[in-house]
Amino acid sequence: MQFSDALQRDITETVRFALAEDIGSGDITAQLIPADHTANARIITRENAVICGVNWVNEVFQQIDNSITVTWHIADGDYVTANSVLFELSGPARALLTGERTALNFLQLLSGTATICKHYSDLVAHTDVRLLDTRKTIPGLRTAQKYAVTCGGCHNHRIGLYDAFLIKENHIAACGGIAAAILAARDIAPLKPVEVEVENLTELDIALEGNADIIMLDNFSLEDMREGVTRTAGRAKLEASGNVSTQTLAAIAETGVDFISIGALTKHAQAIDLSMRFV
User: Fold this and answer.
1) 136 flagged as catalytic
2) I need a surface site. Which of 6, 70, 129, 226 has the fewest CB within 10 A?
3) Domain Quinolinate phosphoribosyl transferase C-terminal: where (predicted)?
4) Could you confirm whether 192 is annotated as catalytic?
């Protein structure tokens, strides 16, 4: 996902909501500190990570108090080692403390997403496969996590239900078959990509006859994936899905499929341990 005006608008709204749920009627603990007290703070990572979330952090402190100065020592997508200083803050002490948790929540989650994506992408760097995320994201943070995926070296599948067809088992059953579902999709939105999930080689042949743009091989064996690549011969893009792990990933990539979709890129992300200290 490219950083864009639309993404910045999403950041502004997401941060506004996050601050509202945290601050509520006011940060009563910060009121212990004199209103005119200023401070400097330093944020470090306690572990190795690929960092993502710079613009979310900036937006948090901009919305709280635009007199705060944020000085970054890294950029989105940078790999850092434990105890590295990520950025420094300067401004009213109350405001720094009020924004701390929300800012670090965004940074630790998005960096965790980018870090796991980097780990997966490194495992298939010797192939031409593209690793794709899914819609298994934290509600309200879809675009944020999908941006983090790209910072970690992986790629975005469809963003939501509106930008591409993904015809799965239940859609096929309701439409009366794979061919009928593809025809209906072409009629509804002729310019949208059409992807179909298939469960065996016979269904693959039907999807190819129907001229699907992308065909998802759901829980195929490695042998059937290789056969599917041979049968397809470039007539459609092939996406492997199901039972993908760090142990199976390289072997799947080596079958010659074009894409591998992995829900774990977003739903299994573990937040990076970060710390803010006044200096």
Assistant:
1) yes
2) 6
3) 114-277
4) no
